[in-house]
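Fold this complex.
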Amino acid sequence: MSLLAASGLTVRLGGADILSAVSLAIERAEIVTIVGPNGSGKSTLLRALLGLQALAAGQVTRQAGLRIGYVPQRLHIDRPMPMTARRFLSLPKRCSDAQAEQVLARCGVAGVGPRQLADLSGGQLQRVLLARALLNAPDLLILDEPTQGLDQPGEAAFYQLIADVRQETGAAVLLVSHDLHVVMAASDRVICLNGHVCCEGTPDVVRDAPEYRALFGFGTQGALALYRHDHDHNHGPGLRHEHGPGCGHDHSHTHQSPAKAKEPQDHV
Amino acid sequence: MFDDFLMRAALAGVGLALATGPLGAFVVWRRMAYFGDATSHAAILGVALALTLSLPIGIGTMLVALAMALTVSTLSAKGWAVDTTLGVLAHSALAFGLVAISFLPGARADLSSLLFGDILAVSKTDLGFVWAGAGAILALLLWRWQPLLTATLSEDLAQASGLNPDRERLVLTIALAIVVAVALKIVGALLISAMLIIPAAAARSLSRSPETMAVIAVLIGAGAVLAGLQLSLLFDTPAGPSIIAIAALIFTLSVVIAPLKAR
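Structure:
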């Protein structure tokens, strides 16, 4: 059974369908990346899967007793509340000092425990958020644009950390990326979303190609790769391919390894 | 010791500070300052209602304050402009309350004590009411402390952790209604939210965790009560405003001290 499955998930906000009939399933220990342009409903999809967003139609089923670790897009830290990183790790479930130290070190931010959340850099805060999510020994990590505001080496290091966590704990990972072209090399599957699931498939890892090395630099250690996919996919007769307004599809290119990608994609 | 009016006043004020310390911290963290105003101004309407219906004043104020707090949180949840809504509700509550009171000749004479409190006239019954109310608020906040903090920091994180932010908001709303009923006699309707906000704001710059902020707010609130009573006794100033004036001085001091302490 899938850890988490959505079927026919539809979200309506202000009379407009933000998501229509999205179906997906997350299996144990896989890394799934959702990409899509701005306003394509990526964050809304995560919020719907987490139960933070009311559904107009469809349903989300979770495996019984599923533990989810959630890392939001950004945590707006209000100055009025004094809060150390250590104290934050104990919300809402208290953890021991030893646990806190261990998980902070694991996430590469050892020693930030006594510091105020508001004083942390964007990258440190993301790592503390990840640390808090890991404390609960999650079966599924859900991350909403976790590398927003990080520079490229920081982004690569963060993705590497997530890949390591999956390796060690066997947790599945569902993450959203704002960058249509750059996704994790460690992703098992990539879902392209634009109000509906446009297509999905394995990322084409091109870490050996020198032109991509040149593009992304050696500093990323192959953690960043291009997901190349084709939008001239066939939906079959009688199926209209609906794209929301603003779906430019300016990223037409061909799959390098079509054998790995599932195509053509049928979605109803 | 309860026979001395000054002792009763001090005990009532300290009891109130025990509740307003942590509750005020939440008001500051959630930026609910005007929310406190609307709720406490509704207390006057509550007094008028209680006198008309011959209900105990404590019950009347608590009910009307609760109704007001629930109205405000429902409207803001529905996306009404909070700033404007609160401005309308807070001042209308005050105006309607004052109009309603003017129909009750007995209470009319007492208007200044409703607006600014009458801590020196606290009876043994009042004292019991203050401590029972403060105890209830403290118990409520301690019981929900972890979920309340999580929901205050981020409603999304709280909900993703299986908590219900709406329920935690309701806890604070109820606590706020109780504190209004308790504080009316001590600092009066106009200064209840000052008692909530000023000690907590003063504690902010001196604390590094939510818990220390709540405790320091209690200490500052209690200190302001005791010093304010002294001031009132020495210079024959009104007790409620004297307490708030001292709290404001402590706040100013804390703002000056904090940068020095950080070095």
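Residues 205-222, 238-268 of chain A have pLDDT under 50 and may be disordered.
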